[in-house]
Structure formats: C-alpha cells, structure tokens
C-alpha cells in the first residue's frame, strides 16, 4: 500500500499545479490557486516573453541626458469629471474622458488620456513596478494615453508608438494627502472583484505633482506590464513622488482578488533591459548636483553668508 501513495500524491499535485488558468500576480499563486504567475505569462501571451518588456529597474548612472526631453504640455488635465472606479480583479481602474491630452516631453505626437490605474504592495510595503537604482516605492500610478488619432486602445497598441504611459511613484508622508480622499474613500465600496462606484468630481491634476515639479523624468520604450504585454508603449517615469500617508496606502490592501484574498503586491517583477538605453530629461538628476555645485561655489566665494 505504501509505495502507491507517493505516485498518486505526486500525480494529483502535478495536475493541480500545472492546470492553465487566468494570469495572476506572484502573490496570488499557490498550489491551491492554479494560475499563470509572471514567469508563465508568456504561456498566456507570447508577447510577454519579448525583448522589450516593462517594468524595468532604472540605473540612474547609466541613463543618458536627452535635451529633447522638454517639459510636457498638459491640456485639460485640470478638467473635473465624473468617473467610475472599478475593481477589475487585478487593480482599480478609472476611465478618463478623452479630453485630457499630453504633448511635448519628447513625444512624437499628441496623446489623449484613456484611463488610470495603480500598482501597490502589501500594507504600504514595496509595490511599485519600476524601480530606481533597485529601490521599489510603495505604489505606482499609470496614466495610460493613446495617440490622439485613435479611438480605442486595441487599435493604438498595433502602433509601436501608439501608447504613452505616464508613471508616478508614491512615497510615505506623515500627513494624509487630502487630494486623494475621493479615491481612497471609494475603495471601501469596491472591495470585491467586478464591483464599481462613482467618483463624483475628480481631475487628473489633483492626483499628480504640480506642473513645475514634472520636468525631471526618465524615458524608455517598453510594453504593457500585464498580459498581452504589447510592446507599443513610450514610458515616462517622473522623479518627483506623490505623497500619501501610511493609512492611505494601507486601504489598497483591503481590496480583494477574485478568490477573496487580499489584493496585494500587484506588480510585475522587473524585466531585462536587453540593450535598451534609458534617457533622462535635462533637469533629471543633474538638477540636484548643479544646485549643490552652485551652493559650493557660493559658499567658497562667501556669498551665502546671512545678510
Ligand atoms: C458598474 O456596475 C454596474 C452593476 O453594478 C454595471 O451595470 C455597470 O456596467 C458597471 N460599470 C462598469 C464601468 O463596469
Ligand atoms: C515642487 O516644486 C516646488 C517649487 O518649484 C518645491 O518647493 C517643492 O519642494 C517641490 N516639491 C517636491 C515634492 O519636490
Ligand atoms: Zn500599470
């Protein structure tokens, strides 16, 4: 009797752990919940095994300054709209009226906003998708745009430069960020997957740093960070993070995946660069060092003495 048990047990584990399912994040994968984790996404869609995938780790000393990466023009970003926020089983997503656009910023065309969503950790722990010199921030906002000539994302994704995503990092702050109250408060009503609720008045401007703080950013070409992983995205990652308190960050971990487990660590691991160059805008990184240099010179010349 004994010798039979092991093969039977192995056979049943094998079946359970290899059954193909929907894609999932690593935090969702257990032998009881058989889904395709990030290392198997290429089974769901071969694009996910491509050479130019996102997210990536940005090594700042290997970035190259590109003077063409000028400040963005944000149009109608201050437009107040009534939106629907939805728990789609992978994230929370808000559709945006296609009236808000971006241009400049070294983009080849004007792009209009389509939706925004977030990626986060567990109770305010590491959760961003992109990392900077290996540092993972607690959360990352993606505002997804498509070239203004397109009417839907599917069409835009067929164009290698069809989609532009603006990525913003979050950092823990001591006080709550009141501009995020509408979003944070709405989360309590959409804990379950496939539920939604209205945001009565919201604007993109209120969610991101002020315009003068958006001149320092990184740029590279990559993909969507969820299946189908289409390589049609011009990525922008802003250096300046958005502040949120620990309590605000924690509320995201109260959301639930389809199976009722906490929706946590909703990020794809960083992907190989495969020879891609990451660029930085003229004012990224350099800003800090030139300020320091000027301060040093001023001190040396005795210019910084209090009057
Ligand atoms: C929101 O949920 C309602 C039902 O509760 C549904 O009719 C509607 O289509 C949903 N909206 C979105 C955008 O998912
Ligand atoms: C935003 O910019 C202002 C002035 O340009 C500066 O005082 C402030 O520190 C910046 N905020 C952040 C978060 O960098
Ligand atoms: Zn995203």
Q: How does this structure look, described?
A:
This protein has one domain: Alpha carbonic anhydrase (Carbonic Anhydrase II, Roll). The chain is globular and about 50 Å long. The protein is 17% helix and 27% strand. With 307 residues, it is an alpha+beta fold. It contains six helices and 16 strands. The C terminus is likely disordered. Strand 8 and strand 9 form a beta hairpin. The strands form two sheets. Strands 2, 3, 4, 5, 6, 7, 10, 11, 12, 13, 14, 15 and 16 form a 13-stranded mixed sheet that branches. A three-stranded mixed sheet has the order 1-8-9, with no helix packed on it. Bound molecules: 2-acetamido-2-deoxy-beta-D-glucopyranose (2 copies) and zinc ion. Zinc ion binds next to strand 7.
Sketch the major β-sheet.
Answer: 13 strands, mixed
Instruction: Provide a count of the helices.
Output: 6
Average residue pLDDT: 89
Radius of gyration: 22 Å
What are the main properties of this structure?
single chain; 307 residues; alpha+beta; Carbonic Anhydrase II; 13-stranded mixed sheet; three-stranded mixed sheet; 6 helices; 16 strands; disordered C terminus; binds 2-acetamido-2-deoxy-beta-D-glucopyranose; binds zinc ion; CA_dom_sf; disulfide bond; lipoprotein; glycoprotein
Fold topology:
Layout: H1 2-18, H2 41-44, E1 57-58, E2 64-65, E3 72-75, E4 81-87, E5 92-95, E6 101-104, E7 111-120, E8 131-132, E9 135-136, E10 139-147, H3 153-156, E11 163-173, H4 181-187, E12 195-202, E13 217-222, E14 233-238, E15 242-245, H5 246-251, E16 279-280, H6 286-300
Parallel strand pairs: 1-8, 2-16, 11-14, 11-15
Antiparallel strand pairs: 3-6, 4-5, 4-12, 5-7, 6-7, 7-10, 8-9, 10-11, 13-14, 13-16
